[in-house]
Amino acid sequence: MEKQTVRSFVFVYLALIGLLALTVGSSFLELGRLNVFVNLAIAAIKAGLVAAFFMELRAAQAVVRLAALAGLFWLALLLGLSLADFLTR
Amino acid sequence: MPDSRALRAQFDDLGQQREAAALGMWVLLATEVLFFGALFTGYTVYRLAFHDAFVAGSGHLNVVLGTANTAVLITSSLTMALADVASRSGSRRAVIGFLAATAVLGSAFLAIKGLEYAQEYREGLVPLNSLVFSYSGPDAERVQMFFNFYFAMTGWHSLHLLIGIGLLIVFIVLAWRGRDRVRLEGNVRAGALYWHFVDIVWLFLFPVLYLVR
Amino acid sequence: MNAGPDYLHEGHSLRSWLLSTDHKRVAWLYLLSVTAFFFVGGTAAALMRLELVTPAGDLLAADTYNEMFSLHGIVMVWFFLIPAVPAVLGNFLLPLMIGARDLAFPRLNLLSWYIFAVGGLFTVITIVAGGVDTGWTFYTPYSSMFSNSNVVLAIVGVFVTGFSSILTGLNFIVSVHKLRAPGMRWFRLPLFVWSLYATSLILVLATPVLAMTLMLVALERLFGIGVFDPALGGDPLLFQHLFWFYSHPAVYVMILPGMGVVSEIIPCFARREIFGYSVMAYSLLAIAMIGFLVWGHHMFVSGQSVYAGMVFGLLSFLVAVPSAIKVFNWVATLYRGSISFETPMLYALGFIGLFSMGGLTGLVLASMAVDVHVHDTYFVVAHFHYIMVGGMVMAFIGGIHFWWPKISGRLYPEFLGRLSAILIFFGFNLTFFPQYIMGYLGMPRRYHEYPPEFQIYHLLSSAGAATLAVGYLFPLCYLAWSMFRGPLAGANPWHATGLEWQTGSPPPAHNFATTPQVTRQPYAYDPTRSREDRA
Questions:
Q1: According to a count of CB atoms within 10 Å of the terminal CB, is the N or C end of chain B lower?
Q2: What is the ipTM, given to two decimal places?
């Protein structure tokens, strides 16, 4: 079982390095405003991989997943409602 | 054989204690999300307002070193995850090895970061009190705002990493001295969650600061 | 029933108190320190009220006055109101109420008091070094660029104390999730525990934003890394958004635990089950949640976008719904109850009235057009004091009386208790009701002199403040007396139903001789039988 875990960690690691290459590469393409979204999407995928595998969020108790979600949700509130002001002036 | 100090008086069994510790760590990380979240919010507001100046400022960062640093940090997360696994299977020597590797990689990250700071200092891009911020392009004030955020964000991140390295060193010493397995496993688990979190923060900081287009 | 010595007799050395991880002893550390800060903040208020007796600025210079209201705000918000009920009563009662031996992380709990003490020390140093004059809100760019007072010291104090709030919140959340006794389902938790849980969510999720924001102000002052600097395009409103993202929810930190206390007292002295238990629990969570969506109502006249203002105004009305539900349910609990008027009940009833008053005037302020008129006037000052003092302080003192027999093992003198409760109620209204009127008439806050036509209101208000001060000193004296000389209380003098009353008074070090089994709802009171023959 441990061997399987280790193998999955190595795969995740390789995926993370691949995504890093992808994000740096994409920044040299002229995508205009799309660049930001590509970068953030890739960062989110990477963060998701780290959280799900390295931090074992996949197998965590429901309340732990809730805690992780709460952090993100409240960050969205902070960003969203602040921008509601800055973008509508 | 876990010694009697492994189970604290307020818990009924080790399973409950482990779940409580995991939840506690994750609540702390949710707190940390908001801690960095304040910085990200400020950054977003200004980047939307001063897009061109932020592109110009970002262009002065060293993407090669930044990319290398990201790879270093990702690798350190792998070794940390392996230390976590090793602490459960009980191989003390492997735990110490992986923890030490993680600490070395973390230090390498800080060293490279220092190199970048030195480079930016030479170019006059450090907006500290007594230093002259000598940016000659257009919109110098807004570019300085970018560098204010760059230093505030990477500075806080490096501080977190420094704390992480300190924790790792403590764990290595504890493992060396033959700390009871159950307690060591708990320490490494908590330390690993923290370390991965610091890694995740960087995974966002990197594109947000270095790859502004 | 008792296993071993009670927690007060577990050791008598100073060390056994300062290094104890027993949640009950940590609660005492907090009780003594927040009481001290309450009187520090109160002294600042007294000086301000004294200054305002006459229209001229004769007692305090303008600068000193600015330092006084800043000190009053900083000390009262971060060193009294926020820790008062959670860190004192919550620390003491939460493990008892869920049937646990301690909090999930007892050493972290002790650590959080030390962090609080260090933060407090910085605040005291700030005072000694000459104070700070930014107001408790630290608005930029005044705080970051222009103020010549000890802004950084004050910020460090608040920053450090923030971590003590975070650790307390974290400890409570994990304890409620993981340490409930067998049979203690979520919907058998006392409402006080629910209120602490909701409070903890706010502490954990809002405090870090304040910490980072204040740190950015300090970075700007110390190192010139000015993210709020207008010369670089910095937006003062960014500071305000970040600040109120914390500070508005923090208002709910200052009222939710008070609501929890009142929800324990009312059923006990009306001998009735709480009306609408589950709605009461949900409304606590709803207030905590919606409280995060309304912060922009502090910024209606600041240059914030009108559209954002409309959204924030609308959401602010929404938060009144769960608050009103709570008021209705308390009143419905009283209906056909067998009510008696002991001291805790007097405070709880006072709370309902004063909180309603403060809440309703909050709706007035949430209406954008009206707020333009009363923004930064005494109307606002009166509004939030009705919530903070009329609500939270009343609930805190009421709770201290209610659980005093449990905490100290002794009874307090009932007559003096009632007398001071009545004194505080009248003193409070005399202090703050005139402020509504003068605020509405245009008296702005934060001035040390004013046109003579406002003098009558200021006089009344200052007279009320003097009454209030006497009211607060009474409990301090008789509770100190009762601690050593009061008659023994016995395990359950109120014949209340909570788990905390099923162990000795004071409780043994590990709370319960055997882990309790919970089989029923928390408020199994019977109004048809008087308290005594229920026992």
A1: N
A2: 0.95
